[in-house]
Amino acid sequence: MSRLTRNIGVAAKGFAMGAANVIPGVSGGTIALLTGIFNELIGALNALLTPKAWKLLFKGNFREFWEYIHGTFLLWLGAGVVASVFSLAKLMEYVLSHHPVQTWAFFFGLILVSAVFMLADLKGKKAVDVLWLAIGAAMGAAICLLSPSTTPDAPWFIAICGAIAICTMILPGISGSFILVLLGKYDYIMGAVSNLDIPVLAVFAVGCVVGIVAFSKILHWLIAHFEKQTLLVLIGFTVGSLVKVWPWADKAAYQAANALTGCPEGELHILSAVICALVAAASVIVLEVLAHRAKGADKDTGE
User: Fold this and answer.
1) Nearest 5°: phi and psi at 27?
2) Contact 262/98 with Cβ under 8 angstroms?
3) Residue pair 239/137 in contact by the 8 Å Cβ criterion
4) Would you say 20 and 27 are in contact if contact means Cβ atoms under 8 Å apart?
5) What's the rounded Cα separation, in Å, for the pair 62 and 58?
6) CA 71 to chain centre
7) Whole-angstrom Cα distance, residue 86 to residue 197?
8) Which of 82, 127, 261, 303 has CB 3.0 to 4.6 Å from 298, enough for a Cys bridge?
9) What is the phi-psi region of residue 144: left when phi exceeds 0, alpha when psi lies from -120 to 50, beta otherwise?
10) Over 90: is that where the pLDDT of 271 sits?
C-alpha cells in the first residue's frame, strides 16, 4: 500500500469519526476502535502531551517532533474529521428544525442501545455493580431535570463545553455531542459550524485543547485504576440522561416544526418516531457486530 493510499484511508476513517461525533449517541472512539486506529490515536495523543515532544519542538527538531507525535497520521485524521463535521452540520441543523421528533427519536434509539451494549461488554459482573450504575443514572437524571432549559452563550461556558466534550469524544461508547446536548449547546455549536461563526468556533477549539491537556490524563488515570467503576458510572449517567433526548421533551421545537411542515397541532408522529428509533438501534447493532468481528480478526492475526 502506497503512503498516499494509506493517508487517504486514514482521512476516510477520520471522516467516519467526525460523522459519529456530530450525532449524539455514537462515539467517535467507537468508530476509531472499529476501524483499527484507536490504539494509534491514543498513542499519538499521549505522545503529543509528553514533555519529550515539546522539548523536541522547542529545540527545533521539527522532523523528530513530527515523527514522535505521529504527525502525518494526526494531520490526515484531523482533516477527515473537520471535513465531516462541517459537511454534516447543516444537515443536522435542518432535521432538528424541521423534524425534531424523528431526529430525537433516532438519537434516543442510538443512545439506549449503545448503553445496553456497553453494559453487556463489561466482564465479571457483581451485585455491587448495580450501585455504581444507579449512582451514574441518578447523576444523569438529576443534571437533566435540575439544569436550566437554557445555558449561557458566554465564551467561558462555550470553552467549558469544548473541554468536556473533547474528552468524551475519544472514549468508545461515550458521545461528545451527547454531552453538548446535556449542556444545552448542541444546536448552538452545530449552528456555529454551519454558519462558520469563527469567534464561537475559536473559543470552542481553545476549550477542546485545554480539555485534552487538563482532563484526558484524569480520565486515563480513572480508566487505568478504576476502569469498571468508571465505565459503570458513565453507562448509568448515559441511561439517566435519556430524559434529555425524549422526542417530545422540547415542546417549543415540536410546535415550531409543526408550523413549518403544516402538520396539525398536537400531531405526535408516534409511528415515524418508533421507526427512527428502530433504525438507530439497528445501526448500533451492525456497528457492534462489525467491531466484534474486527477484534476477533486482530486476535487471529496475533495483533
Assistant:
1) -95, 135
2) no
3) yes
4) yes
5) 9
6) 23
7) 12
8) 303
9) alpha
10) no
* Type of residue at 293: R
- pLDDT band (50, 70, 90) for residue 34: low
- Which amino acid does the sequence have at 128? V
Residue 211 has pLDDT above 90, yes or no: no
Q: Averaging pLDDT over each range in 88-97, 146-155, 209-218, which range is the top one?
A: 88-97
Q: Of 104, 118, 102, which is closest to residue 238 (Cα–Cα)?
A: 118
The ranges assigned to domains in the chain are 3-300
H or E element in which residue 113 lies: helix 100-121
Model pTM above 0.85: no
Q: Report d(CA 276, CA 100) in Å as an integer.
A: 11
Grid coordinates representing 258? Answer: 409543526
Q: What 3-state DSSP class applies to 69? A: coil
Look at residue 157 and tell me whether its pLDDT is greater than 90.
Answer: yes
Residue 182, CB-side half-sphere exposure with 13 Å CA sphere: 29
Q: Length of the chain, please?
A: 303
What pLDDT score does 301 carry?
55
Question: What does the pLDDT read at residue 257?
Answer: 64
Distance CA 11, CA 28 (A): 14
